[in-house]
Specification:
By secondary structure, this protein is mainly alpha-helical. It is built from 13 helices and 4 strands. Helices cover about 65% and strands about 5% of the residues.
């Protein structure tokens, strides 16, 4: 009886830590931002880039509906109807910038299914781990220990890739393009889902044992949870490859005034991928009558769900590989100095500020001299 009370207290403390850790992280981030807020670069507002982008889309649709083949004539791109010389409301520069942004939409769309694979860590993979043997030398491990294993590749590969990027700056040494890293990351995600299906078949071959989680006794497989490690590591490797590469492409291949909008669309695709993952679970559950995503893993065939997800992700990887040549010119732009364009813009702005304040100082000096005279 004392053992169950002690176990319940430990679980209560662990639950409180789950809320304390993100709260502390956010608090430290706010303190760090407040400490350096005087050193941040503030730019004067010149209108909303997001509203301008949405305005170009809406105006183009309106012109297509009202003036299709009548007033505007034939145009090479439907967005060109928003230009002022075609009867639209926006300048040619604004429309051309939006056309550059539209070229990244296939990249954003192909991240949806990838994010659906990533959401399997707190959903499908979580159920697999919960129905596996969590005991290690008699000690009951928390289910979140596998989540930690999926984070380790990100912590190791992120600085390692940055180091390789620094070492391969010479023209003779060419590092794979960000599009190549995205392709490899998508392939790792597909392979992870495939291994999850194989592990599920292997897990059900083991005899069942009783295991207590959160005060409930569950009949789980005697297979140790660490046999699920490869699928977690592959998703961690995929995250280390895909997320930085997508951010780099979204930042460097868009005009400076639309970089924030580009990153917003990228984040929107990440959120949409989470909803797509939930939709796939509910859809396959409904179609299969609960067989693909069962309430009791021992009585269903959850491996079919993972195989379906792996097949969809493999198709997604092939599609991105076919269109990846659109984003492979990024290495050329970086080597030609486009990667330092943001820093160069900051230096120009800093020089402009210095000239502005220098002009103020001189004018104040002249005014004081005139007063004395």
């Amino acid at each position: 009886m004392d053992f169950f009370i002690l176990l319940k207290n430990k679980q209560s403390v662990a639950k409180n830590l789950c809320f304390l850790i993100p709260f502390t992280s956010v608090l430290l981030a706010l303190i760090a931002i407040h400490m350096v807020h005087n050193k941040l670069t503030f730019r004067p507002k010149k209108g909303s880039s997001l509203l301008t982008t949405l305005g170009v889309f809406l105006n183009s649709l309106k012109m297509c509906c009202l003036h299709y083949r009548h007033l505007s004539g034939d145009v090479a791109n439907w967005l060109d109807r928003a230009k002022e010389n075609n009867g639209g409301r926006y300048s040619e520069t604004s429309v051309e910038n939006v056309k550059v942004l539209v070229k990244l939409f296939p990249l954003y769309g192909l991240q949806l299914l990838y994010r659906a694979c990533i959401t399997q860590i707190p959903s499908g993979y979580y159920l697999q781990t919960m129905h596996s043997n969590l005991k290690l030398n008699g000690f009951l491990l928390p289910v979140a220990v596998m989540k930690v294993i999926s984070i380790l590749p990100v912590l190791i590969l992120a600085p390692l890739l940055e180091l390789l990027n620094t070492c391969y700056q010479s023209p003779k040494k060419i590092l794979p393009s960000p599009a190549t890293f995205i392709t490899m990351g998508h392939a790792c995600a597909a392979l992870s889902a495939l291994l999850a299906g194989i592990s599920e078949i292997h897990r059900k071959d083991y005899p069942q044992v009783e295991q207590t989680l959160s005060g409930k006794v569950l009949h789980v497989s005697s297979m140790t949870c660490f046999q699920l490690t490869p699928q977690y590591i592959l998703l961690g490797v995929a995250e280390a490859f895909v997320t930085p590469a997508c951010s780099l492409i979204s930042f460097c291949l868009t005009p400076s005034n639309l970089r924030g909008v580009s990153l917003h669309f990228l984040t929107l695709s990440y959120g949409g991928g989470c909803f797509l993952g939930a939709f796939l679970v509910h859809f396959l559950y409904f179609v299969s009558g609960g067989n693909f995503y069962p309430n009791n893993l021992s009585s269903g065939n959850m491996e079919r769900f993972f195989f379906t997800l792996a097949t969809l992700m493999a198709i997604n990887t092939l599609v991105f590989w076919r269109i990846s040549q659109r984003y492979t010119d990024l290495s050329v732009e970086l080597s030609s100095g486009a990667g330092h364009s943001h820093l160069y813009e900051k230096l120009l702005q800093y020089k402009t500020c210095l000239r502005f304040y220098d002009t103020l100082d001189r004018s104040d000096t002249l005014t004081s001299m005139e007063t004395v005279l």
